[in-house]
């Protein structure tokens, strides 16, 4: 009999206490692996209460009054720049709120209703991506890490780069691939493509109601 391998999210489920993931276990898993799965968040009130325990809520331009953002198909509006995540089309790999000086370092995604088809959540291990590019495309990586080689957002956006190296071995990634992204002429046209191709190497599906990552 063939044993099914655990998905990424199944392998990172934290213990439940009273319908909530134990905060200490969640944070420990996040620090160690960068992802944690919590089950039992079956009401908006529970989602909001849990989020307030583990993170600082930052309102999104399209968020609701309680600072949570309901992701649903908004029809023709989703074809406007920056709103692709609110439609049914493909959403290319990106850093959430990339146009801000300091994008959020922690996100909570909750599945309220599984999609009839599609709807997969694609995640990438940023450290593994950086290591892969260092091995296979070091020149492209150096260009993507150069200051001022990317600009994200509209006129009030943020000049940046795709990769930023910090003290120790920490690397942060800032990327978007829509009409609100512009890259320096000195940046080879293969750079965003290299990042996109590598980012697609890691994916997982979040399709269980009340499950969150």
From TrEMBL:
Q: Which residue windows does the record flag with biased composition (Low complexity)? A: 201-213
- TauD/TfdA-like domain location, by residue? 25-162
Where do the record's region annotations for Disordered lie? 182-213
Fetch the Pfam families from UniProt: TauD
Task: From the Swiss-Prot or TrEMBL record, give the protein name.
Answer: TauD/TfdA-like domain-containing protein
Keyword set, alphabetical order: Iron, Oxidoreductase
Xref: InterPro entries = TauD-like_sf, TauD/TfdA-like
Q: Does the keyword Secreted apply?
A: no
């Amino acid at each position: 009999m063939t044993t099914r391998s655990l998905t990424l999210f199944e392998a990172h489920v934290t213990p439940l206490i009273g319908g909530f993931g134990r905060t200490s276990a969640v944070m420990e898993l996040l620090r160690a692996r960068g992802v944690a799965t919590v089950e039992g968040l079956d009401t908006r009130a529970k989602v909001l209460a849990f989020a307030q325990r583990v993170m600082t809520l930052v309102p999104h331009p399209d968020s609701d009054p309680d600072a949570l953002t309901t992701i649903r198909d908004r029809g023709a509006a989703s074809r406007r720049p920056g709103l692709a995540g609110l439609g049914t089309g493909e959403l290319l790999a990106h850093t959430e709120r990339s146009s801000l000086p300091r994008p959020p370092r922690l996100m909570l995604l909750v599945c309220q209703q599984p999609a009839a088809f599609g709807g997969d959540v694609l995640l990438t291990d940023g450290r593994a991506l950086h290591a892969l590019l260092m091995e296979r495309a070091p020149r492209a990586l150096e260009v993507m890490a150069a200051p001022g080689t990317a600009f994200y957002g509209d006129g009030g956006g943020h000049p940046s780069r795709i990769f930023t190296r910090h003290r120790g071995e920490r690397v942060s990634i800032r990327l978007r691939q829509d009409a609100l992204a512009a890259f320096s002429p000195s940046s080879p046209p293969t750079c965003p493509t290299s990042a996109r191709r590598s980012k697609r190497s890691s994916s997982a599906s979040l399709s269980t109601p009340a499950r969150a990552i």
